[in-house]
Amino acid sequence: MPNYRNYLRLLCLGLILPVAAFSQKEDRKLTAKLTELAGAFHGEVGIYVEHLKTGRFVAINADTVFPTASIVKVPLLVGLFDKIEKGELKYHQPRVYRDSAKYGGSGIMQFFKDSAATEVSVLAALMMSYSDNTTSLWNQALAGGGQRVNEIMEQYGFKNTRVNSRTPGRQDIWKIYGWGQTTPREMARLVKMIFKGEIISPAASDRMYRLMCRGYYDESSLSQIPPYVQAAHKTGSVDATRSEVVLVNAPHGDYVFHVATKNNKDQRWADDNEAVVLIRNVSAVIWNHFEPKSNWKPLYTVYK
Question: Matching SUPFAM superfamilies, A to Z (predicted)?
């Protein structure tokens, strides 16, 4: 017979949660709101939302595979910290930048002078804060390559979250999805696990989460969340794909969401790109749904 007295003792001490807390239930009201937004989009959309305290969720094409674009840098960060945890790298280990590592696109390390001194912590910070492509490819190599990162994703039960670029055997799928691939449900779960201290180690997860809370690109989903509320996030953008994963430490309960798009008709690099507007609107709807009494209104302004 179950020891109910011991169960109640642990429950009162807060060492376990009531059984009901582990159940998940679709948030139909929020699903309806987000389905309407997704239905009006000219392209393919996937959305996953989960309120961590209540387990309420929304899943719209949540298990469909989408290109990650720069969101692949979250798995790369995990791979880097796997090496640090094992002692094969040190967080403040000195490195030397070489022009041969330069890669264009987003980021600032490409503008460093050849032979400039840096360190692993800087590579990690630039990758997550400025989505730096040069440091990201460097980190991918330091992590043991895309194949090793994929092995780690597999170990944690992620079946579709993979690095494709510069990864042996994945050239054909790279042509379809680019640098990386994931599903809205999987990427949201990965970020949730980092927040809960369940990836690599509690200490490694803590450091990764801190790095994810210092993003420069805050004019999309974060513009619809009060600036005094902490949020970890990562954006990913290429011509036909604009996506973002966010975990919000909201006053009435943390929540995570991932909005993914692909085959987008609007491929302009503009502030009013349809996918960017969609991500903003999704973020606003989720915030107002979970925090209806916040009385906060976004003062979103595009500074040019």
Answer: beta-lactamase/transpeptidase-like (SSF56601)
Which amino acid, one-letter code, is at 40? A
96-137 pLDDT, tens digit per residue, is 999 999 999 999 999 999 999 999 999 999 999 999 999 999
Dihedrals φ, ψ of 97, to 5°?
A: -80, 135
Question: pTM of the prediction?
Answer: 0.91
Over residues 201-216, the pLDDT tens digits come to 999 999 999 999 999 9
Q: How far apart are CA 198 and CA 302, in angstroms?
A: 37
Rounded CA gap, 99 and 74, in Å?
A: 25
**Structural domain harbouring 116:** 22-290
The position carrying tokens 């925090």 is: 291
Q: What dihedral angle (degrees, nearest 10) is formed by the CA atoms of 155, 158, 162, 167?
A: 20
User: Looking at residue 217, what is its pLDDT?
Assistant: 95
d(CA 73, CA 197): 18
- Number of structural domains found in the chain: 1
CATH code (residue 261) = 3.40.710.10
| CB of 289 closer than 8 Å to CB of 30 | yes
- Is residue 237 a part of any domain in this protein? yes
